[in-house]
Amino acid sequence: PGNSKSAKSTVVPPGPPMYLDLVYIPNHSNRKNVDVEFFKRVRSSYYVVSGNNSAAEEPSRAVLDSLLEGKAQWDSNMQVTLIPTHDSEVMREWYQDTHEKQQDLNIMVLASSSTVVMQDESFPACKIEL
């Protein structure tokens, strides 16, 4: 009840971590839906980052920074692979600005060099072995 705009909610409430092999970061990696708490709780070997809309700030630099902050609080230094679905200016700048921290946290950003063609559509692809 009441005005929901004034209430602040966290997408992922505090609690014990969940371990997954592959996670698609929801809603084109929009900062309104993913925060540091998400990455503290949802721990994965692979995160897929979609979004190629700079006007909508997707993917969001804040989400990418939240990955670094959240992963820094993990109790292990397991390798994490970030898989962007598009080559975006935001992703390139973030990669360059935070490359040293990514290395410290054992985060690798995977660049796709393959393309899948299906009928009239083509898109970048990468192979993930779990």
From TrEMBL:
Entry GO CC: cytosol; dendrite; microtubule; microtubule associated complex; neuronal cell body; synapse
Superkingdom of the organism of origin: Eukaryota
Listed name of the protein: MAP1B protein
InterPro entries assigned: MAP1
Transmembrane regions: none
GO MF annotation, one: actin binding
A Gene Ontology biological process term: regulation of microtubule depolymerization
